[in-house]
Fold this protein.
Amino acid sequence: MRKRILVWMLSFVLIFSMLSLALAQPPVVKEMVAKAKAAVKTVSAADVKAAIDKKENAVILDVRDPNEYAAGHLPGAINVSRGTLEFVIWTKVPDQNAKIYVYCKTAGRSALATKTLNDLGYKNAVLMDAQFEDWIKAGYPVVR
């Protein structure tokens, strides 16, 4: 019985270690995100909430995957997955002067997406530099 428990525990540790490595971001990715954040204008979750409350003429852009968006998103947000941004944004937001607030789960994909939007000529794309969980913890509304 002890041998079986020991094997189970070692298996669990091995699987957990492998999973942790698979989920960890390599340093180059962290550097890319940091550079993107440094290159774009950022706003807080409170700023985005205020824009929503004022019914500001702005696009709230969720760059998470469709299943994440379906599980809950900011009011009025449109979804364009980070992986398809360059190909789809033109039909979703044709006005390159539009104010665009970009967000995702951790502000990583959205930092890269905001930089990409700026590179594509979107002059007023800004990063909501907050995690989606921060939005929820602040008690801000989520559409499910």
